[in-house]
Design a protein that fits this description.
This protein has 20 helices and two strands. By secondary structure, the chain is mostly helical. The chain folds into two domains: 104 residues, no CATH class; 222 residues, Orthogonal Bundle (MetI-like fold), CATH 1.10.3720.10. Strand 1 and strand 2 form a beta hairpin. Helix 10 runs antiparallel to helix 11, helix 15 packs across helix 16 and helix 17 packs antiparallel against helix 20. It holds the Pfam family BPD_transp_1. It comes from Crenobacter oryzisoli. Belongs to the binding-protein-dependent transport system permease family. CysTW subfamily.
Length: 421
């Protein structure tokens, strides 16, 4: 007789309470995930409230443009149908006069003048002069003629085009200005005038100085990290204390100390002249040389520690094996040892470069006006002119550059791991 081909019954495993084991395991896994999320949630909320939200609100200020819309609502509505070429029609002038009187009463004229003065020089004084003359008594038959008679600049379309360009709550003005561009009279993006095109040079200077500092730190830190990784433990610990010692001193104190050391009558110039190396004091401070010296001194530990942490995990037998197989010591170091330290070099270089592009105190105290970096202008617009739009635009571009650098570094590290794999 042929054997039966009927399927065997599906015996499902169950727990003692009759629940299928598969279902029970799924519930346990979901519960573990919920517990993990509950543990991470406080940290996530902390980061959201103290890091992401403040940065997002600050970055929003780089495109926020409330001054003109809030102070000239009727003018904005009336000017929307203007062709932007000839002078606006009479209703625009009438609405503007009414809005200006209200802005003067509400004490918002200062913010309005400050914002429009960024578009056209002299706009603030023009608004102040016009607000003092308003309201006209008796009311003129033509506000257009009355305003042009009061000041001939109201007969220039450029002043009305500035209002029209700011007829929305958001503007690319600050971001474009931070990239040395502007919106011209016809509404097209154009290059800034030569006297206003300074920020691209500032960004280039910032990246160049940061790259120089990073390279110098790498050249000095790599052999020191190698020495730390290969010295006996007692000597290595003593040397590590010397490396970490600057962390216990304020950056401002260290910069002030470098001013004392590098000035014309300082210890370094005195020693150089006493040794006969030079017959006159060298200019080592209030220039880029002083900035480089102080920044390298401050940032050196940030390069040493990542490289040292990688070198400490590399076995010295690799080099000895390469040399015993006939390789030259330098060739063995370059082909066997150095590739294993690339991750530490990349991490240290990225850390030092990112810290460098955000430096403010050291260039401000030790450098000349031509040595100031982007952070100086961020502080200037924040503390001096109270121009949050420009400050956040410059800071936002600096943050974007940092993120791009981090992504490039992550891509390079990932690509190197794939090649090694």
């Amino acid at each position: 007789m042929m054997a039966s081909s009927a399927p065997m019954p599906d015996h499902q495993l169950t727990t003692q309470d009759g629940v299928p084991l598969k279902t029970k395991l799924a519930r346990a896994e979901r519960m573990n995930k919920m517990k993990s999320l509950a543990l991470v949630l406080p940290l996530a909320l902390f980061l959201l409230l103290t890091f992401i939200v403040p940065i997002g609100s600050l970055l929003f200020r780089s495109v926020d443009n409330p001054e003109v819309v809030a102070s000239l609502p009727h003018t904005i509505k009336a000017i929307s149908s203007w062709d932007g070429k000839s002078l606006p029609p009479e209703p625009v002038y009438r609405a503007f006069a009414a809005d200006l009187v209200k802005a003067h009463e509400d004490q918002t004229l200062g913010d309005l003048g400050k914002r429009l003065n960024m578009e056209v020089a002299g706009y603030r004084s023009l608004l102040g002069k016009t607000a003092r003359a308003l309201p006209f008594d008796p009311a003129p038959a033509s506000y257009k003629d009355a305003l042009v008679k009061l000041d001939e600049r109201w007969g220039d379309p450029a002043y009305w085009q500035a209002i029209r360009r700011n007829s929305t709550n958001h503007t690319p003005f600050y971001l474009l200005a931070a990239l040395d561009h502007r919106i011209d009279e016809v509404g097209e993006v154009a290059k800034a005038t030569p006297d206003q095109a300074i920020y691209l040079d500032v960004f280039a200077r910032t990246f160049w100085m940061s790259a120089i500092v990073t390279v110098i730190c790498l050249l000095l830190a790599y052999p020191l990290a190698y020495l730390l990784a290969n010295l006996p433990t007692r000597k290595s610990n003593l040397l590590m204390i010397m490396v970490l010692l600057p962390f216990w001193t304020s950056v401002l104190v260290r910069v002030a100390a470098w001013i004392v050391l590098l000035q014309s009558g300082g210890l370094i110039n005195s020693a150089l002249m006493a040794l006969g190396i030079t017959d006159h004091p060298l200019q080592l401070v209030f220039n880029r040389t002083g900035v480089y010296i102080a920044m390298v001194h401050i940032l050196m530990p940030f390069m040493i520690l990542p490289i040292y942490s990688v070198m400490k995990g590399i076995s010295p037998t690799y080099l000895r094996a390469a040399v015993s197989l006939g390789s030259h010591p330098f060739g063995a170091f370059w082909k066997v040892y150095f590739p294993q330290t690339v991750a530490g070099v990349g991490a240290g270089g990225l850390l030092v470069f990112i810290l460098s592009i955000g430096y403010y105190i050291t260039p401000a105290l030790l450098g000349s006006p031509n040595d100031q970096m982007v952070s100086y202008f961020v502080a200037f617009y924040t503390n001096t002119t109270i121009n949050w739009g420009m400050a956040t635009a410059l800071g936002g571009l600096l943050l974007a550059a940092t993120l791009v650098l981090y992504m490039v570094y992550s891509w390079l590290v990932g690509a190197s791991r794939l090649r090694l794999g």
